[in-house]
Amino acid sequence: MTSQNRIKTLTQFIIERQSQYPQAKGALTRLLNDIATAAKIVNREINAAGLVDILGYEGSDNVQGEAQKKLDVYANEQFIQALKVGGECCAIASEENEKIISFQNEISEMGKYVVAIDPLDGSSNIEANVSIGTVFSIYRRKSDIGGGKLDDLLQPGVNMVAAGYIIYGSSTMLVYTTGKGVNGFTLDPSVGIFCLSHPDMKYPETSNIYSINEGNYIFFPEGVKQYIKYCQESDPKTLRPYTSRYIGSMVADFHRNLIKGGIFIYPGTTQQPNGKLRLLYECSPVAFLAEQAGGKASDGFNRIMEIEPRTLHQRAPLIIGPKAMVERVEAYMREHSPEAAPKV
């Protein structure tokens, strides 16, 4: 962290960036601040979760058939409320809701943006006190004024105007991009302000971490199996064998690899050919961040950012990290699994 007289807050940073574009009206600035405000509230409840009756399951399932934890529901409600009241967002797609949430009020109907969000990624790790996160993507609406529509959200990542995540761990960080690099802000809990701590984030030039749930190895496509074997071979010139690190919270795995250098792989399997992660509010936003940090994101054959979503909760395999690492996995996939290439 910089010295006290040089600390730059998230709000200051966003306003400074906005001033570089005379055409900017401040709507995106306010929207990002709305997300940051909800994140602070969610962070407070996560930190207190062990002391109050908020851990455990809600008793219902989300649209994916996954049991909803109480914090999942709480986080979802907080982000929905913050974005609705803020007025810059006309609709939301959330992992926790089957359909889009279209805001039907005079303020939000004028909103220029739609938001796709996973309110609490990795919530299965809550009881184990492992880092969890929020991941979001922001698009300009395609429809005219009024409540947002499904087509406003079914856009490829290349249309994204901003994306980011909040990681709730030993410290709480908000990392985001608007297509002009990646910057990270750490929450100062004593004053409740996000301060710039990681400017212009880039993947390290050398990387030797791979992150994948090797317990599913038997179900992986042959190209991924071959890459894992490559990672485990001994070759000091290429820093191999690589170190295996897997948390099980996508945001936490992605964040660690962005800081330390490494690849995250969540492939399709024989049981789930399209993988488990959702394209719109998990894969696409981290793909935008990875590319802005000098990396690459692929489904094994195609650029994640170019995949056209057909449904709100569409799934996609994800291979993300430094370019060279991702391209090596793609080469193995093309060599060993050409018939498995998904149609974009």
Plain-language structure description:
The mean pLDDT is 90. This protein has eight helices and 15 strands. The radius of gyration is 20 Å and the shape is globular. Helix 5 packs across helix 8 (323-336). It has an eight-stranded mixed sheet, sandwiched between helices. The protein has two domains: 4-198, 2-Layer Sandwich (Fructose-1,6-Bisphosphatase, Chain A, domain 1), CATH 3.30.540; 209-338, D-Maltodextrin-Binding Protein, domain 2 (3-Layer(aba) Sandwich), CATH 3.40.190. It has helices spanning 10-19, 27-48, 70-86, 150-153, 222-232, 250-260, 279-292, 323-336; strands at 57-61, 67-69, 89-94, 101-102, 113-121, 132-140, 160-168, 172-177, 182-188, 193-198, 209-211, 243-244, 263-266, 295-298, 318-322. It has 344 residues and is α+β, with helices and mostly antiparallel strands. Helix content is 30%, strand content 23%. Strand 7 and strand 8 form a beta hairpin.
Question: Could you say what the CATH topology of the largest domain is called?
Answer: Fructose-1,6-Bisphosphatase, Chain A, domain 1
Question: Briefly, what CATH class of the largest domain?
Answer: Alpha Beta
Helix content: 25-40%
Q: Return the string of H and E elements.
A: HHEEHEEEEHEEEEEHEHEHEEH
- CATH architecture label of the largest domain: 2-Layer Sandwich
What spatial form do the alpha-carbon principal axes imply? Answer: globular
Question: How many β-strands, per DSSP?
Answer: 15
Radius of gyration: 20 Å
Task: Look at the structure and name the CATH superfamily of the largest domain.
Answer: Fructose-1,6-Bisphosphatase, subunit A, domain 1
Averaged pLDDT: 90
- Secondary structural class: alpha+beta
**Largest pleated sheet:** 8 strands, mixed
DSSP helix count?
8
Widest sheet: strand order? 4-3-5-6-7-8-9-10
Gap between N and C termini: 43 Å
Counted up, domains total: 2
Low-pLDDT sequence parts: none
Query: What percent strand?
Result: 15-25%
